[in-house]
């Protein structure tokens, strides 16, 4: 199964080695692109993890470990956090486990990430803010909690089904209509590729500088505004070129105001 090759699974601070191993097995079962781990509280490639991986130990050996979620998703174009927490974020429409409306809207996804939080407490607020979309798996209100391995398996199966429903081509995830068809003015070179999480964070930094220069205080209100703008860019599938243009606008405005600029 190649439908999920562009998608990686990111585990945030997992505690149980059996869960890490079990997730590696599910990732291999469903053909996802790999596993990344953030600030683990257990040994990722230890004997217990390998025992539960049952034939997927190579994924544990290859799994990079990061200190922060921001580092783990820096090269990703679309980041979906799996959570049951209600919040301000735009949520994936998860009717029948299939987020096909999101995939139809976004077009081709070359580098995606599904992020799963801690077994006992999920993701923290700042981590949820880093996700472009949140996806809540439908469970019984009488017993909503899922085991981490179960959640990963259900989400990957749902994502694979979504890709089938939006008519993926044999060349990968070239969904119809194409990005060029949706945005004929965008161009056709590498700058037309979706902006990565790291590139959008660069724009956020410029926005914060500009907001501070124009009277916004560095408080929760400013953080909320930036988070909403991040979600807007994610929903719209901003390209590298579009993000670069917006950064240029911010730099010019900052220069006009007379503030020192970041060399970036």
Task: Give the distance, in angstroms, between the N- and C-terminal Cα atoms.
Answer: 41 Å
* CATH architecture tag of the largest domain: 3-Layer(aba) Sandwich
What spatial order of strands do you see in the largest sheet?
3-2-1-5-4-6
Number of helices: 11
The radius of gyration computed from the alpha-carbon positions, rounded to a whole number of angstroms, is 19 Å
Instruction: Report strand %.
Output: 5-15%
Number of strands: 6
Overall shape: it is globular
H/E element sequence: EHEHHEHEHEHEHHHHH
In short:
The chain is α/β, with parallel strands linked by helices and 264 residues long.
Could you explain the architecture of this structure?
37% of the residues are buried. The chain folds into 2 domains: 7-165, Alpha/beta knot, CATH 3.40.1280; 179-257, Helicase, Ruva Protein, domain 3 (Orthogonal Bundle), CATH 1.10.8. Strands 3-2-1-5-4-6 form a 6-stranded parallel sheet. The protein contains 11 helices and 6 strands. The protein is globular. It has 264 residues and is of the alpha/beta class. The model is unreliable at 168-187 (pLDDT under 50). The chain starts with 6 loop residues before the first strand and ends in a 7-residue tail after the last helix.
């Amino acid at each position: 199964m190649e439908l999920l090759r562009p998608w990686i699974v990111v585990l945030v601070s997992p505690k149980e080695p059996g869960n890490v191993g079990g997730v590696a097995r599910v990732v291999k079962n469903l053909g996802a692109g790999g596993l990344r781990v953030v600030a683990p509280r257990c040994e990722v490639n230890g004997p217990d993890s390998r025992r539960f991986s049952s034939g997927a130990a190579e994924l544990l050996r290859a799994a990079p470990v990061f200190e922060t979620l921001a580092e783990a998703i820096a090269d990703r174009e679309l980041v979906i956090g799996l959570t049951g927490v209600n919040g301000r974020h735009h949520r994936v429409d998860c009717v029948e486990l299939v987020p096909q409306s999101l995939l139809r809207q976004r077009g081709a996804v070359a580098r995606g990430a599904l992020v799963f939080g801690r077994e006992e407490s999920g993701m923290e607020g700042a981590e949820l803010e880093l996700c472009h979309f949140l996806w809540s798996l439908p469970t019984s209100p009488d017993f909503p909690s899922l085991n981490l391995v179960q959640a990963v398996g259900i989400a990957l199966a749902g994502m694979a089904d979504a890709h089938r429903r939006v008519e993926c081509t044999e060349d990968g995830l070239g969904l119809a209509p194409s990005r060029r068809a949706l945005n004929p003015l965008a161009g056709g070179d590498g700058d037309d590729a979706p902006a990565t999480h790291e590139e959008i964070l660069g724009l956020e930094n410029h926005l914060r500088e500009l907001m501070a220069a124009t009277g916004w205080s560095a408080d929760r209100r400013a953080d909320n505004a930036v988070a909403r703008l991040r979600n807007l860019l994610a929903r719209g599938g901003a390209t590298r070129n579009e993000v670069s243009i917006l950064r240029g606008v911010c730099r010019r405005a900052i220069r006009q105001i007379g503030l020192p600029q970041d060399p970036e």
